[in-house]
Amino acid sequence: MDWGKKNRLSQLFGADGKCFYLPIDHGYFLGPTNKLEKPGETVAPIKQYCDALFATRGIIRNCIDPEDSLPLILRVSGGTSVVGGPLSNEMLTTSIEEVIRLNAQAVGVSCFVGTEHEKQTLGNLSELVNLCEPYGIPVMAVTAVGKELEKREARFLALCARIFAELGASVVKTYWCEDFEKVTEGCPVPVVIAGGPKCDTVREVLEFVHDGIQRGAVGVNLGRNVWQAENPPAVARALKAIIHEDRSIDEAVKIHDEMAGK
User: Fold this and answer.
1) Which of 132, 199, 260, 261 has the most Cβ atoms closer than 10 angstroms to its Cβ?
2) What is this structure's pTM?
3) Which of 5, 18, 151, 173 does the annotation list as catalytic?
């Protein structure tokens, strides 16, 4: 790995090798999502607890202060919406010149394994790696299953993660599942946990994150379970405690409750 790529990756992980990414890219197919209507205002009270933002170029340019920003993971795939055809029918939306112009530390692309557009989206990943590698820009491959929640089990997610790594991804974002170690042990690059649907309680969020970290994940990429929470800064602080401070679930819940005034 060359110096530039090592340097970019070092900005995306703490000294402990762990990470807490905050995705605010949901609008690229959902539009003005609840609590994310004004992304800059959503991010402001949370970012001190996070290691990087995952966002599109439009939101970065219009909503994020370039003089006070977290490291950036740039969302570079899209092309469909929640009211259109299959969400799996994606393309690459952003050029390598834009990635460099925005000074992104990494890029992210969704891959829909097991769908009619599997080859197309794995092709997007391969093309992106080919474009980014000469410039030392890491690629995060995102396991995407759309509404097919039944696919979120270890055998399928392990398949996806390994394929992404084989095609050149530097980091894999995937869902937590039972027996999560089967996913991490079969993937030779760092694995971060996706948030998925919003959980009913804060403890539920902290439980799956803690379990995933114990089973080999290096961190998380959580959006709705943070910024749609009753007290987003408190949730973010509790997550940081688990990820970077090796706190227990009960300790993290206590941190959350004290900060939230409960």
Assistant:
1) 132
2) 0.95
3) 173
Let me know: does 91 contact 79? Beta carbons within 8 Å. Answer: yes
pLDDT tens-digit series, residues 24-76:
999 999 999 999 999 999 999 999 999 999 999 999 999 999 999 999 999 99
The CATH number of residue 38's host domain is: 3.20.20.70
CA angle 189, 95, 117 (to 5 degrees): 65
Name the DSSP letter for residue 221: E
Q: How far apart are CA 180 and CA 155, in angstroms?
A: 9
Ramachandran sector of residue 50 (left: φ over 0; alpha: ψ -120 to 50; beta: rest): beta
Question: For the chain, what is the domain count?
Answer: 1
pLDDT for residue 150: 63
Give the Cβ contact number of residue 37 at 10 Å.
11
What distance in Å separates the CA atoms of residue 76 and residue 97, rounded to the nearest whole number? Answer: 12
Q: Closest Cα partner for 236 from 81, 1, 27, 24?
A: 24
Token pair in block for residue 38:
């004004």
Task: Tell me if residue 18 is catalytic.
Answer: no
CB atoms within 10 A of CB 173: 27
